[in-house]
Predict the structure.
Amino acid sequence: MEKLREMMKNRNFWLAVLIIMFVIIFIIYIRKRNREKEQSKFAEDIKKDAVKDKITEKEQELNQYLRKLWAEHAFWMRQYVIAYFNGTGDVASTSKRLLKNQDMIGRSLGMWYGEKNGAKIGEVMKLQLVAFGDMLNGMMSKDKNTSVVGEKKWHDSTERLVDLLVELNPKWGRVELSQHLKSYNEMMTNMAINRTRKKHSEEIASFDKAYAHAMNDVADVLTKGIVSQHPEQFDKLPEPEKQSEAVES
């Protein structure tokens, strides 16, 4: 104890402590600066890619929002499938949350096409889920006819959704949009089938594909269509009209 007291009275001891503290603070500062530089470089790289692809900040914001909604759409569909097949008490609550997501997607598009049209989109998407539920009911009861009829209703209501969207915005190509939504349906159907067969690895793989497809492909196609129809809202110039080639007489 006496030696410790003597050391604390010694100026060299305090000088050494100060130097050690300074070195520690300096190391922490350098690491923080390096981290900030890495983050800044990452942000700059994203910005450069966006500029190169002619994607404006406003377009990125819209795309991120639509990706969020469609990712939630896939997530809550899976949660509903799990709750429904397991017969757990959260089926009603999960169904309610899933239906809420359809309203949110409808409202997000209603910002561009009016509140009434947004409500229509939400209602058609809810009809899709009713048909999806009929298909699940057929799978669970092993009633092939009920399952097939439910799946057909699901695809038919998807085509109604495509018709409605393309009517509101012709920039959404009907063929492309239909293909993307049908692909999503097929992935979710495969997920449900694999769950009934207790092939959970395949089930998860099917869901991963459906989730990525909804969040990336579907949301991105919707974003591009809106931006193409309303370029001025995204700090872009209108696309030049395609001129038909003159036919030489």
User: Anything to note?
Assistant: The two ends are 110 Å apart (CA to CA).
